[in-house]
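Notes from hallway chat w/ T.B., transcribed later so I don't forget. T.B. wanted the structure written out for a chain they're using in a teaching module, and asked if we could keep both sequence and structure tokens in one place. Agreed to drop them here.
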Amino acid sequence: MFSERVKELRLSVGINQVEFGRRLCVSKQCVSNWENGNVQPSIDMLIKIATTFSISSDYLLGLSDRTSLDTTGLTNEQIMHIRNIVNDFKEAMKKQ
């Protein structure tokens, strides 16, 4: 599960393995090994990856499908707009 999720998250922000590795101070080969399921990151690196994507380590490890958004610094009104957009997407998915 980790390998799939880390690749999915990396692609969702539009960066390649080299750039992702640079952000984490690891090699492209290290990122490739994670994404291919050849090796698992250390606990410290798992925390760093989760922090980079603003998600929980439980999500990365496949223990939870729940993701969250960091709304720090946003007004209540802005947060409500985001909630409404998310709800609109959920409703659209139900109709498909």
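Follow-up for T.B.: The chain has two domains: 2-61, 66-96. Might be a good example for the class.
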